[in-house]
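Standup notes
- DV: blocked on the single-chain target, sequence here:
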Amino acid sequence: THFLVEANVAGVPCQAQLSGATTISVPLLIPQDKNGFQITTMFLGTNNRFTLSADSQYIAHANLQSPQCSGSARRAVSNWVGTFNIDDSCNQDECCCLSEQATISKKSETQYLVTGRVAGKPCAAQLNGSTTVEVTIGAPQDKNGFQITTNFLSTNNRFTLTYDNQYVANVNLQYPQCSGMGRRVDENKNTASLISSSLILIVINAFLFRMICV
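- DV (later): unblocked, structure below
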């Protein structure tokens, strides 16, 4: 009977309005107006109307009391395919790390292929002296396609793609010092817009509005 809106927030009034919180979690009734495409409801202390576009790609948010606090959002679509510059946060004294650049390509509808250079003291033994890797991973399904937890170079890792598709964060769940970050260097930016207003800036999963049935 409800959706849950989870979001980051920003704006001068947030400090007082939310007691310093920078995130929110607000339940909403499942929309019934306009055949399920619209709802008018209280949200963060004011009366608001949320309207989903007919193609389900956009949400228009109209603050009925303070119009300057209105905004809109476009559904975020994950795009893992591309080439990424790798940062130097992975500890090469202790880890076999992706190095310089890595490329993610689509191998099939259910798999991606990660190729790249590696560097680090353990690489010689771990990879029999190879300085490059080709690792197949499943197509990400978590966080609406923006995250995957998988075995990578013999350890358990969580890869998270940012909603603008520009960065991949890799957290090594067994050896945190072996974590790292990649920044997209190709031209396929596929950016997603944000809800913005003077009161709130909401960045939400799946729409940049993450609505989850509860």
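- Follow-up: The chain is about 5% helix and 45% strand.
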